[in-house]
Design goal:
By secondary structure, this protein is of the alpha/beta class. It is built from 25 helices and 17 strands. α22 links the parallel β16 and β17. The longest helix is centred in the C-terminal third of the chain and has 21 residues. The structure holds 2'-deoxyguanosine-5'-triphosphate, calcium ion (2 copies) and zinc ion. The site of one calcium ion has 4 residues, from loops.
């Protein structure tokens, strides 16, 4: 019996075969057949598994016997020989050319074949020396455009950090929200879901049809738009000066809630939602939620009321699912019977933990960091400069630790005298050494009110050794929090491969928290461990790891990850009042 497949899975399978065929220079005829089959299946309204089980795919227009057999084979075995063969045949370097905007597989094959090159560097060279321009149907202009696109591709990786995407989105929102005809406007896509990295930025506007064209004009003409990638009545895409892609869609006000849900995604969440709807004899699409016709299509004459996303969830028997949870990663269990937990919000946070000052590698004094926390409405600051072995970061000798405590005591006295309700907590970010020991004698560690244990050296230790170091630290009686557990740097360096499920179990047992480092370059712990953490009763702390004032404002990204983890305020240490936090830190 074949395993059930998702429609989207088959569509991308067929698309990949078509693309690779063109890159392999095969008869375009065959590639077109795969494209056509992909389109047919994409627009299929009923369950594709039915056709697979009954071997009736050829009943569908545009699907021939050989492609049908490929799909059956895929459902049966999880792979297709024709695809495997193509993947072997087409060099990876050539596939990378697909990332050059404006380069389709046919053009790629043509250049690759005519000039006998596969590397990107060769392509650049041949664009510069006129070889590409001299090919039939290419010319100087094409060569220049390819060079420009390669430069973009190289300068801006396909994805970006969430702070960069947020800045771009806020700028566009600001410039569009007051435009004539805008009834509603929102960020959608991965940014609304607070995913750790962002591909392109999606914006959605509700407006009447008569205003759409002028709004699109305004959007593509905004300052900061470097190139218009496409402009239409309902959808336009631009590239910004910084190389980010922004998509804008305009829908009618009546369709807005369903469109917002659709374009927020994730794709996987949408797939699951649509199948839930079908299970209740309804059809969900980007226009709304509809009763079904007899042949199981959306009956556009019989819409269900969908004034907001909330209505759609309610019609399907679910509680509202916050965008951050929409990853098909367990949210449907949480939302069944309407019992979605109240996720933590930035406004729940009472204090800031994990901050560096000029005592180690921070840019600002303790006083400056404290004042910035006060301004932002926080009640306490857990100051955690680096420990002694972190020489690269100005780690504190035991002597310097004691001097720092004097400064903290003096500042706390000053706040008390002035009647300012604010406390600086004496903390340290202590390096976890290669053998899992910490970086100060236990009796000194015991004098800190807050100890974060972090790995900053030996990052390349094998997973088992790394896990042992982290577990040793988590079990240490003086350690309150394990900092950035994987050490990953998003889009730059993978984290260690230690088994975090075991660390989470271990830390929970020892009542040690694991940080969600809110720095947009880290966002570590990863939200995908949220369910495990909740099951184990793990405490977390959302920490900016701030080295300057701006760093404090990274809290919002950490909160996004905490929400994606399914955490409530009760899961987060620094949502506690100072008194409760002190109790907890006292263990
Ligand atoms: P990104 O841009 O890679 O960070 O991720 P997203 O999730 O923003 O993806 P994007 O920009 O391609 O599309 C935005 C949303 O639109 C996506 O989350 C779900 C929806 N969407 C786009 N294409 C499809 C599709 O083919 N099928 C379904 N079900 N939804 C789609
Ligand atoms: Ca997107
Ligand atoms: Ca998009
Ligand atoms: Zn730090």
């Amino acid at each position: 019996m074949p395993k059930p497949v998702q429609k989207e899975e088959i569509v991308s399978l067929l698309e990949e075969i078509g693309t690779l065929m063109r890159l392999a220079g095969e008869n375009d005829f065959r590639a077109i057949a795969f494209d056509r089959a992909a389109r047919t299946i994409e627009s299929l309204d009923d369950d594709i598994n039915k056709y697979i089980d009954d071997h009736t795919l050829t009943d569908l227009k545009g699907i021939g016997k050989s492609i049908a057999n490929d799909v059956y084979e895929y459902a049966e075995t999880g792979s297709v020989p024709v695809l495997e063969k193509l993947r072997d045949q087409v060099p990876d370097a050539l596939i990378a050319w697909l990332g050059i905007s404006g380069m389709g597989p046919k053009k790629i094959y043509k250049i690759h074949k005519a000039l006998d090159i596969t590397e990107l560097s060769e392509l650049k060279e041949k664009c510069r020396d006129g070889s590409v321009a001299s090919l039939a149907g290419m010319g100087e202009k094409t060569a220049e455009k390819i060079l420009k696109s390669i430069a973009w591709m190289e300068e801006f990786s396909a994805r970006c950090h969430i702070d960069e995407a947020t800045a771009v989105a806020e700028l566009f929102l600001e410039k569009m929200k007051n435009a004539d005809g805008v009834k509603e406007i929102s960020v959608a896509g991965s940014l609304r879901r607070a995913l750790e990295t962002i591909g392109d930025i999606d914006l959605l506007i509700a407006a009447d049809g008569k205003d759409a064209a002028s709004l699109m004009e305004r959007f593509t003409g905004l300052d900061g738009v470097m190139e218009v990638l496409g402009q239409g009545e309902t959808k336009s895409s631009v590239r910004t000066d910084e190389g980010r892609q922004v998509d804008l869609r305009i829908v009618s006000p009546a369709h807005y809630p369903a469109a917002l849900m659709y374009f927020t995604g994730s794709k996987e969440h949408n797939v699951a939602m649509r199948s839930l709807a079908r299970g209740k004899n309804m059809q969900l699409n980007e226009y709304g939620l509809f009763h079904q016709t007899d042949d199981k299509k959306a009956d556009f004459d019989r819409p269900l009321p969908t004034q907001s996303e909330n209505y759609i969830y309610r019609h399907l028997g679910l509680g509202f699912i916050p965008p951050e949870l929409r990853e098909d990663y367990g949210e449907f269990d949480l939302a069944a019977d309407g019992k979605v937990p109240e996720l933590v919000e930035l406004s729940d946070m009472r204090g800031i933990l994990h901050v560096h000052s000029t005592w180690s590698d921070g840019k600002k004094s303790i006083r400056e960091m404290a004042e910035a926390c006060i301004e932002r409405g926080y009640e306490y600051l857990g100051l955690t400069d680096h420990s002694q072995s972190a020489a690269y970061a100005g780690g504190l000798s035991i002597e310097r630790v004691k001097q720092q405590w004097e400064e903290i005591d003096a500042l706390n006295r000053e706040y008390a005298d002035k009647g300012i309700d604010f406390t600086i907590i004496k903390g340290i970010e202590s390096d976890i050494l290669a053998d899992g020991r910490l970086d100060y004698p236990d009796d000194l560690l015991a004098e800190f009110d807050l100890v974060i244990g972090s790995v900053h050296s030996g990052l390349d230790h094998p997973p088992e050794k790394m896990l042992n170091r982290l577990m040793e630290a988590a079990a240490h009686p003086q350690v309150h929090v394990v900092g950035h557990p994987t050490g990953r740097l998003l889009l730059r360096r993978d984290g260690n491969k230690a088994d975090l499920n075991r660390l989470i179990e271990h830390a929970s047992k020892h009542k040690t928290a694991i940080e969600i480092n809110a720095n947009p370059r880290r966002l570590d712990l990863d939200w995908r461990y949220g369910r495990k953490a909740r099951e184990c009763g793990l405490m977390s702390a959302v920490c900016p790891d701030a080295h300057d004032i701006k760093g404090l404002d990274h809290m919002r990204y950490g909160i996004g990850i905490a929400r994606k983890s399914g955490f409530t305020a009760g899961h987060i240490l620094n949502a506690k009042t100072l008194a409760d936090l002190k109790k907890w830190l006292g263990k």
